[in-house]
UniProtKB/TrEMBL annotation:
This is Glycosyltransferase family 4 protein. One of its GO terms (molecular function) is glycosyltransferase activity. InterPro entries: Glyco_trans_1 (IPR001296), Glyco_trans_4-like_N (IPR028098). Residues 18-123 form the Glycosyltransferase subfamily 4-like N-terminal domain. It comes from Litoribacter ruber. Pfam families: Glyco_transf_4, Glycos_transf_1. Residues 168-306 form the Glycosyl transferase family domain.
Amino acid sequence: MRIAQVSPLYESVPPKMYGGTERVVSYLTEELVNQGHQVTLFASGDSVTKARLIAHTNEALRLGQTFDPLAHHIVQMQEVIDRIEEFDLLHFHTDYLHFPFTFSNPKPHLTTLHGRLDLPELQYIYKKFGCQPVVSISNSQRLPINRANWQGTIYHGLPFDLYEKGSGEGNYVVFMGRISHEKRPDRAIEIARRAGINIKIAAKIDKVDKEYFDTKISHLMEQPHVEFIGEVGEEKKGEILKNAKALLFPIEWPEPFGMVMIEAMACGTPVIAYHRGSVPEVIDRGETGFIVNSLEEAVKALENIELLDRGQIRRIFEKRFSAKVMASNYVKVYEKLLNRHKPIHPIFGKPNTKLAG
């Protein structure tokens, strides 16, 4: 199958540091290549891939001085359309940006929606573009947009060898990802304080969250049980996670997926998460972690964390959240879309494989 993977240009594929969407695009692209498909990746020039790379910027937009990122993405969309006959199917990871380009185009295409969908403007978008075939990354994510043309829910996956199971002997818990109100690092710090355990904060601070960090979080970092590490890459992330007793995920928003949860599971590290968004779909209660609704419940869960089997957590990750499983599920959707687009035989009324090429 000849597949185009179209990634946002804000981060490289894979990203050098933080970057959820671009990491998923990387893992999917590489696994599709491993499975024998001909894949072309549309991404920034500093991306690293076994697929054919078509770049529209020399480096990820976040790394340079970019005044209008939309301009780069519009050129990227046109480049995809200019090359459309080179592919059997187009797979976009660029939200709804390409919808006007693909709205009336007969080429099979699919969009994975990576972000939150409870924004009021999206109702306006999907009223106009409701026929666009889309995939959700959790069943919870899709709830606000009933009118969308859902092709399925496909959970994110990681390569088997990206992380290894650890012992959890570091005598600390970890908060990892991004410093923001919806992620609630303050809750994580308080849970660790009440439980009498150290916590490592390995998280990125975006410009939009700088004021929140300065006014609500920075003073909490001065407590003796808190170690602020900042944004980390893959290698350091794995070391931190596999030695942690648990990952704290005390979110306050409808999390679309939560990649860090399966990263922890890949290390055999249990997750203590608040009951929000995708959490009940990702975490198996009492096996890969605990789902809680309060600080008190989180502290109690942490006291019982040793009851969970880290080997079993890793096995569940391999069964449910590997890149191989993710890619295979996408291929099923690709095949379904391609079958729909086969020309109809004028006499027998069945898809004509000869006409379809």
